[in-house]
Each structure stands twice: as C-alpha cells, then as structure tokens.
Amino acid sequence: MRATTATSIPIELLRKYDRPGPRYTSYPTAPVWSGGVGNDDYRVALRAAAVHTDKPLALYCHIPFCRSRCFYCGCNTCITRSEESVSSYLDMLEREIGAVAGLLDRRKQVSQLHFGGGTPTYIGNDGLERIMTMLDRHFSFTDRAEMSIELDPRVTTCEQLRYLSERGFNRVSLGVQDLDPQVQEAIGRVQSEQMVADMLAEARALTFRGINFDLIYGLPFQTVDSFGATLEKVIAMRPDRLAVYSFAYLPNVKSNQAKIRPEDLPTTEEKYRLFATAVEMFTAAGYKQIGMDHFALPDDELSLAQDDGRLHRNFMGYTVQAAPEMIGFGMSSIGYVNDAFFQNQSGLDSYKSAIAEDGLAVYRGMHLSQDDLVRQYVISSLMCNFYLPFNDLRARFQIDYRTDFTAEHERLAEFFDDDFLTESEDGLTITPVGRTFVRNIAMTFDAYLSGDGNGRKPTFSRTI
User: Fold this and answer.
1) Peptide bond into 335 cis (omega under 30)
2) pLDDT digits (tens, 9 = 90+) for 45-77
C-alpha cells in the first residue's frame, strides 16, 4: 500500500542538527575501545558463550579484495590480481574459522550470515565455496537463516548469482551509488542503469528477497535535479530496500579520494537538499523509513519487524534475526561475544601474521559494564524501532526511566520542541520527521560523548 503523504524535512532542521556523531552500529562505539583487549580475552569470551547452545549466532565474513578502487570508497579493501594473495587469505580465514568453532564447542546454530568487503564475488565461486564448506563443517544454519552478500553489478555474473541462490543465500545488496553518467565517471564506478536493472531482474527470478540498493549522496556533480532523476529510476525498479549514505570526503585519510576534486562536490546546503529529496521521494513512493538512512517497502520483513518492535541492528545492518552474539571472521571484522566487542587486525599482512602465529587476530575491543548494557539497549531501541518502552527497560534492567535518566531527558527538550519526539506513560516515540535525526537523539544517551551532545572524536562522520 502506498503512503498517502511524504515526509518533508525542513532544510533549517538539517542545518541545525548536522554535527559529528556515531552511526551506532555498536555501543559503546569503536573509538573508545581498548588496545588492551586481545586474543586471550576473546578465547575466554568464546568459551563462556559456548554454553548457550540453544541461542543462534550471527556470522560475518570480510572479503577485502577488489579489482579496482572506487574513488569515493572508505571501506577496508585490497586491490590485487594475485591469486596467491587471495588463496593465502582464504587459508588464514579457514584457520580462524576452525579456531573459533573449536572454542565455541557445541554451539553451532547460525541464524544470520553476511559476506562483506571489498567485493565478495571477486574471489569467484570456487573461493566462496571454500568458505562455505568450512562454515558447513563447523556450523549449522537454521531453517530461516538470513544469508546475505554485497554485490558489485560490474563484477558479479549471473552464474555467481545462481551459485549463491543454490548455496542458500537469500538476500543481496547491490552497490548502485548513483545512475548519472557524469557522477559515475567522477567516482570511478561506471555501470549502466540497464546493468543494474538486469541484475535486479536476475536476483528476483532466483527468488532472492529483501533485495537492497546502496545509494550515496554528496558525490561530485550531484544536484537535486540529477539525484532526483536517479531516485525516480530507482523507485521505478522498486527494490525491496534502500540505503542512502552520506559521502564522507576524507582525502587525507583515504588516498583514493584525492582523485575527487573538492570543487566538484555539492555545497553543504546542496547536500542537505539531496538528502531531504531522498527522504521525501522514497516515503512518497510508499517506502517506510528504517533508521536514519534506510528505507523498506511496507511488506518487507524489516518494516513488519519495526511495526512489531522486533527490529535489530548490528555491524551487518538492520535485521529481523535476534542473534545475541556475532562472530567476525577476516581482517578488520568485528565480533560481539559475552557482552564484549572484539576487532581483528585491519591490515592484510598483520591479519595473516596474527592468524599464522596464534589462530586468532584480535587487536582491540571492549568489555561492557552494566551501564554500557543499559545504554546499549536504549540506543538500539531508538535506532531500530523509533521507540523506547519504559516497561521493557524496567523489566530487563530494573531501571526506572524517569528516575535514572533525568539528566538525559532534560537534554531531549530541543527534540520535543522540534516535534522529533513524543512521550507517553509507556515510553518515548520518535516522530516521522524525527527519524532522520535519530542519531542526534541517540547521542543524548551516550555516556562517552560530551554533555552538550557534540561528538568528541573527530573520526565520527556528520549526522546528515
């Protein structure tokens, strides 16, 4: 059913609330994790988690390889044409999977699997099969397991899509970014509209569900008119889900971005209008806003789960699968086990060396306190379901919102004034306009940020 009205975001509100802040794929966020957490801590956590044999796991595999580096890219990738480099990485990945599975002992059930990158299909069906064979050896997928993978339409073949379907993958995410030829040339990622449409049609024919398009706003040469044209074409294709990410221009950090000229980028005001246009057009077309920059059709599982308060979020994105713990495999991957975060070495050579020496490659992480767990729940509830239920908070943690979050509630005043939030006896609810600013609202409950809500870490992207 189509929405009857679009969500219109006033530009002055985008301007007012555009500030550095976390995306809250985790809480506490990665910048406050400690280098004092390592392999020994991970082993203890895995052994402790092993006893929960009735609880499913989420697995993430990082495949870092690409054939070329897109100019805008901020991901942890490796450009190689060396088969030996890929093969040796898969050797280490297999060794890590075996080591982790051994520590998890009889805890085998998996309800969510995601392959990210890089370009996972770059390693071909043989490479993907090596990983899947290893996972099958040590784990067992539930009947309704969510198995997803990121795809580059320029690299992925119909044969690979068929292989993925036969192997049980049921969700795909296509990197689209923008369909305007001038923008594509400027970011080093040229792919025709027809190429994207053909891959979407093939994925649908193979009964993939929850098909997602990734778009980016703030790229060189984007205008409201040109981006609007891309959005119209995307809406006509009608993918199940959409993600609309802000381009973070950091040429001093990501050298590949130096190929993009700053004078070709939209101004800050233009960037606000690009995002406002996306929100308005997608909601007018019937998509529901999921989080600050995701959208899904009303009958998609994400929309239905949000309606019921069952939506979850982790480093793999929004999901309906309630896996309390996540295992990360591969360089830079992140896991969450026994109320603690663990991240692997981010460099290819450092990851391989660590695995070769010790079987694991953790270089930082964080053990969560009770206060961290409470705030993690609060922030996750707001980010996923746009709702904080007071009774559930009390039942889980014996916390009374009005007593224990008095200071935070006072700092929410500006959000109430701007009609981002409503309060009832049951809880806090974020309004349709407020959904775009959910990161800002969540920052109010972040104990690691300064009291005025401004991010203390320059590494955070801006909220708009």
Assistant:
1) no
2) 999 999 999 999 999 999 999 988 999 998 888
Q: Is the peptide bond before 28 cis (omega within 30 degrees of 0)?
A: yes
Q: What is the rounded CA–CA span in Å between residue 211 and residue 415?
A: 33
Q: Quick one: which H or E segment has residue 234? A: helix 224-237
Residues in the chain, how many? 464
Report the 10 Å Cβ neighbour count for 348. Answer: 21
Q: What architecture is the 1-28+370-464 domain classified under in CATH? A: Orthogonal Bundle (1.10)
CA distances from 98 to 47, 61, 103 (A): 14, 13, 9
What is the average pLDDT across 294-305? 93
| Sequence ranges of the chain with CATH classification 1.10.10.920 | 1-28+370-464
Rounded alpha-carbon distances, angstroms, from residue 89 to 242, 245, 328: 31, 29, 15
Domain 32-325 belongs to what topology? pyruvate-formate lyase- activating enzyme (3.80.30)
Helix residue ranges, H only, 50-192: 83-104, 124-138, 158-166, 181-187
Q: What is the mean pLDDT of the chain?
A: 93
pTM for this entry: 0.93
Amino acid at 443: M
In DSSP notation, 26-57 reads: SSS-GGG-BTT--HHHHHHHHHHHTT-TTS-E
- 79 pLDDT exceeds 50? yes
Q: What is the per-residue pLDDT across 313-325, written as a single tens digit (0 to 9) for each? A: 887 788 887 778 9
Distance (Å, rounded) from C-alpha 348 to C-alpha 331?
Answer: 6
Cite the residue boundaries of each domain of the chain with CATH code 3.80.30.20. 32-325
Q: What is the pLDDT of residues 250-286, one digit of tens each?
A: 899 899 999 999 999 999 999 999 999 999 999 999 9
> Which stretches of 297-421 are DSSP H helices?
301-307, 348-358, 370-385, 390-397, 401-404, 406-411, 413-417
**Rounded to whole angstroms, how far apart are CA atoms 46 and 104?**
6
* Residue at token pair 């295992």: 327
Say what angle helices 370-385 and 390-397 make with each other, to 10 degrees: 150
Q: Nearest 5°: CA angle at 388, between 454 and 272?
A: 45
Query: Phi then psi for 357, rounded to 5 degrees?
Result: -85, -40
